[in-house]
Amino acid sequence: MEFACAADAQSALQDFINRLTLTMVSDARIIESPHFPKKGRPGKEQLPERISYRIDGELASRIDVHQRELPRKSSFIIATNELDEQALNHEQVIDLYKKGQQKVERGFRFLKDQMFMAASLFLKSAKRIMALMMVMTLCLLVYSAIEYRIRQALQQQQKTFPDQVGKTTTRSTARWVFQFFSGIRLLIVSKTQEMVLNLNEHHRDLLSLLGERYLALYENST
Fold first, then answer.
1. Cβ atoms within 10 A of the Cβ of 194, count?
2. Distance between CA 213 and CA 106 in Å, rounded?
3. Is residue 17 within 8 Å of residue 25, measured between CB atoms?
């Protein structure tokens, strides 16, 4: 940018410096820029038609601010509902989190999944973002509980369930089980009879392992 006088350039420079947080201006200076009426190199005795002023300098990182902000930005809260420090002290909370960190954070991988379409969500209000995170965390709790229930039932009954490539496993993910059940349809005939369609033996075996309450939801009824 060019300025009409050095005072305006200096004022703009100071305003820019005041807005900086993590950087600073180094070797700042105001430079005169002469303008001549004709293009090309001016003569030695030729005077400029006018003079404008511009700001020159370099941006440099503020190491002191960076070192001060790094620990704060790298911090996060680890919470527990165990309030008795004799039963679970601070060091034990951290150790337990380190051991289970991968299992917990792995559950949030669905945020990057294209099927979830998280990138299409936009919430302007901080309250709405917090509400969405609460709902998502609750859903993840239910998701993890049903996955644990499925794996536990398969292992206890020494049963298997087909995976994505047609092999059998005792450690099915809840996501794959949901996808496996996605083709099931409910047909209502004349409002007097309900028929569950596309239910195969793998569906029935898993539902029976989970219990009568699950199996009853998929039974044909009249």
1. 13
2. 29
3. yes
- pTM, full prediction: 0.52
Spatial distance between the Cα atoms of 78 and 94, rounded to a whole number of angstroms: 8
Q: How large is the average pLDDT for residues 153-165?
A: 90
State the DSSP H helix or E strand holding residue 176, giving kind and residue range, or none if neither: helix 174-180
Find, among 74, 64, 75, the residue nearest to 22 by Cα: 64
Name the 3-class secondary structure at 163: coil
CA quadruple 209, 212, 216, 217: dihedral positive or negative? negative
Question: For the chain, first and last CA: distance in Å?
Answer: 79
Q: Two tokens at 29?
A: 């200076």
The span from the CA of 75 to the CA of 42, in Å, is 61
Nearest alpha carbon to residue 56 among 103, 114, 10: 10
Q: Give the pLDDT score at 151.
A: 93
- Which run of H or E residues covers position 98? helix 90-106
With a CB cutoff of 8 Å and minimum separation 6, the contacts of 137 are none
Q: Specify the DSSP class assigned to residue 170.
A: S
Q: Residues 20-32: pLDDT tens digits?
A: 988 899 889 999 8
| Burial degree of 126 (CB within 10 A; 0-12, 13-18, 19+) | exposed
How many other CB atoms are found less than 10 A from the CB of residue 52?
Answer: 18
